Amino acid sequence: QVQLEESGGGLVQPGGSLRLSCTASGRAFSTISVGWFRQAPGKDREFVAAIDGSGVHTVYVDDVKGRFTISRDNAKNTVYLQMDGLKSDDTGVYYCNADLLGSTPSDYWGEGTLVTVSS
Asked: Which of 90, 85, 4 is closest to 39 using CA atoms?
């Protein structure tokens, strides 16, 4: 069992930056992969990025490559999503997911944090 809590969302202007955090409790954190998904208004939830337990291997959806960076601090049981060069299309609720396989989510979700990119 894994419990996840996201934070760091907010309102930002186009071109701005935000850093999201996902803090986990429960299972040994360093053994599990963690990913970020987002859901824009009226759209399905989609994969954004993921990182393996060691923090060595990462994967991103094409749309965010070069703009977003996923990282983790296993000593703090936390995964981060640094988002730079934000666009209006990045608006949505961002969810953390643990123990996913590739870009396929598990049943372990956080409650989400809202990111709004608007001038």
From this structure: 90
